[in-house]
Design a protein that fits this description.
- This protein is α/β, with parallel strands linked by helices.
- It has a single domain (5-221), classed as P-loop containing nucleotide triphosphate hydrolases (Rossmann fold, 3-Layer(aba) Sandwich), CATH 3.40.50.300.
- 49% of the residues lie in helices and 17% in strands.
- It contains 9 helices and 8 strands.
- The chain has helices at 16-27, 34-47, 55-61, 92-101, 105-121, 131-135, 149-162, 169-185, 207-222, and strands at residues 5-9, 30-33, 67-72, 75-80, 83-84, 124-128, 141-146, 198-201.
- The strands form 2 sheets. Strands 2-6-1-7-8 form a 5-stranded parallel β-sheet, sandwiched between helices.
- A hairpin with a 2-residue loop joins strand 4 (75-80) and strand 5.
- Helix 1 (16-27) crosses helix 9 (207-222) and helix 4 runs parallel beside helix 8 (169-185).
- The longest helix has 17 residues, at 105-121.
- The protein is globular.
- The model has no long low-confidence stretch (mean pLDDT 94).
- It binds cytidine-5'-diphosphate (2 copies).
- Keywords: ATP-binding, Cytoplasm, Kinase, Nucleotide-binding, Transferase.
- Residues 6-219 form the Cytidylate kinase domain.
- It is found in: Cytoplasm.
- Its main location: cytoplasm.
């Protein structure tokens, strides 16, 4: 039997992973964070002292980098060569390294293969930049989740401060603008809405409103509609 697939794409800080995690929990899908995979490769490059924008240098070490994922009660864990890097990949400098290695076709092909394999095994809700357009073109539901750059930077800044990461709003905002541009302008599988995606702008919405809206779309898709009194 073929598995159910939901694609959530959009720019950084739009709420993709938080919403996808919540929907996965309620609707019994496995959540797959593809951004974490690009972050793991970015981390691997940074740790080896390699410039993440140097495609040749990154390609040279690509075979040495093995990315795996595990799904447990605490959610998704990501491993780089067997080491749990779930926390290490969240540092701001790794966001930029991830966006730089994500331009390299060899990196994308390696990770897309892993993503498609995971989506064959079970019902998935997968978030990223190119899920609806490239990774899972046959996904039954495609959402393009966005919000204004200011709202997205504010959300990410609050999140980092809560974790105790030293940064400024301006730094987070500039990092986001850089990634938006870099992710949208690359030649291979850029960030853009799939033609058959539903556009959701969460700028003025609370997190719960966004979760409810997308959960409703998933219920429509699966036919699992709540009873109305
Ligand atoms: O995965 P993505 O980068 O798109 O965003 P995220 O990591 O899910 O969300 C970034 C932060 O924004 C999280 O702390 C969310 O709780 C928050 N958020 C929010 O405050 N309001 C929303 N409507 C959506 C997300
Ligand atoms: O959490 P946030 O939205 O900040 O970023 P992420 O989803 O963790 O992704 C980190 C970077 O990986 C992005 O800026 C993209 O450059 C890249 N990425 C991608 O190119 N394709 C994907 N399917 C997912 C992420």
């Amino acid at each position: 039997m073929s598995t159910k697939k939901i694609a959530i794409d959009g720019p950084a800080g739009a709420g993709k992973s938080t919403v996808a995690k919540a929907v996965a929990r309620t609707m019994g899908f496995v959540y797959i964070d593809t951004g974490a995979m690009y972050r793991a490769i970015g981390l691997g490059a940074v740790r080896r002292g390699i410039d993440a924008s140097d495609a040749k240098a990154v390609e040279k070490i690509l075979d040495e980098l093995t990315v795996t994922m595990k799904h447990g009660p605490q959610g998704q864990m990501i491993f780089l060569n067997g080491e749990d890097v779930s926390e290490a990949i969240r540092m701001p400098e790794i966001s930029v390294a991830a966006s730089l290695v994500a331009v390299i076709p060899a990196v994308r092909l390696k990770l897309v293969e892993l993503q498609r394999t995971l989506a064959e095994e079970t019902d998935v809700i997968m978030d990223g930049r190119d899920i609806g357009t490239y990774v899972l073109p046959n996904a039954q539901l495609k959402v393009f989740l966005t919000a204004s750059p200011e709202a997205r930077a504010r959300r990410r800044y609050d999140e980092l401060r809560e974790k105790g990461v030293q940064t400024t709003f301006e730094e987070v905002y500039q990092d986001m603008l850089f990634r938006d541009k870099n992710d949208s302008s690359r030649a291979f599988a850029p960030l853009r809405p799939a033609e058959d995606s539903v556009l959701v702008d969460s700028t003025e919405w609370t997190l719960q409103e966004t979760i409810d809206q997308i959960t409703d779309m998933v219920r429509q898709m699966t036919g699992d509609l709540p009873e109305r009194s």
